Amino acid sequence: MNNLQRIPATVITGFLGAGKTSMIRHLLQTANGKRLALIINEFGDIGVDGNILKACGVENCAEEDIVELANGCICCTVADDFVPTMEALLARPGGIDHIIIETSGLALPKPLLKAFNWPAIRTRITVDGVVAVVDGPAFADGLFADDPEAVAAQRQADEALDHDSPLAELFTDQLACADMVVMNKADLLAEDQAPRIVAELQAVLRQSIKVVPASHGAIAAETLLGLGAAAENDLENRPSVHDDEDDHEHDDFESFAVHFGAVGSPEDLVAKLRAVSETHDVLRMKGFIAVEGKDMRLLVQGVGDRYQHYFDRDWAADEARTSHLVVIGLHGLDEAAIRAMILD
What we know:
The chain is of the alpha/beta class. It folds into two domains: 3-237, 3-Layer(aba) Sandwich (Rossmann fold); 252-343, 2-Layer Sandwich (Hypothetical Protein Yjia, Chain: A,domain 2), CATH 3.30.1220. Helix content is 30%, strand content 24%. It contains eleven helices and twelve strands. The strands form two sheets. The protein has a seven-stranded parallel beta sheet, sandwiched between helices. Strand 2, helix 2 and strand 3 form a beta-alpha-beta unit. The protein is globular, with a radius of gyration of 20 Å. The protein starts with 6 loop residues before the first strand and ends with a helix.
């Protein structure tokens, strides 16, 4: 297969809760018949994002075209997971037109780009582009901004901070690797905030990279796909603060799953989750919940104090109607205390 026939792959990165999965759902719905394959890389042992996408019922991306790689970073397990997965997708009967990879919110994007240079796949697949999704309201609140004065002020206010935040470094790496930045949740911003945030993001990006505002991840496939970046051949122009390190940023994070029975009130559960986020170093919680008296499962996901919940589909006949949540946070989480708060 020559270079002109290589299948394009789009890497979608972005911090926890930025809206990557919502954006992919909209992409699938606007792909105009393109045969797509998805690789969903979760941090944690329950494939929540993959389940959300499998439930969306888009014809051009069937359930068998969605591959989940849970409980491990694909850039750390290239030989064992990533390359065999890509080879299996390439061997699908009928072929595929485009591969979409949703990275874990804790993943460093550059090591993944390097993986596309492995001999088994480098002549068969090219990275069409890296799309970084940014949570607009979070950025407006000063989270993960590359501002030395803000970091200094934060250190002064919190004696426990004795080094740069790993979240800030991760955010910087995601932007540095991007071929397009989507400023999501623009509908939650004040009218004068959006232009300011776009300008601030634009100032730290490579000159040719554009920032695209979006609400609910609604960016059409024709905008996201076809960037032609060949990013795997452009690594030198994508600097990382971890270029000289062998370890990965997600060593600063951990996750665990909580399983429990049906709940009586979704609102009471969300109130508990907000209390957990306020009390502990929890970054994100997401999962599927069984609700007493309901035949549909409840999807719950949140970051910080912002939570959303809705019934996404009926429980399947062969599914156990039990609740399970993935809790993701900074290393050193008090798992026992968090479980007690959720299960109380």
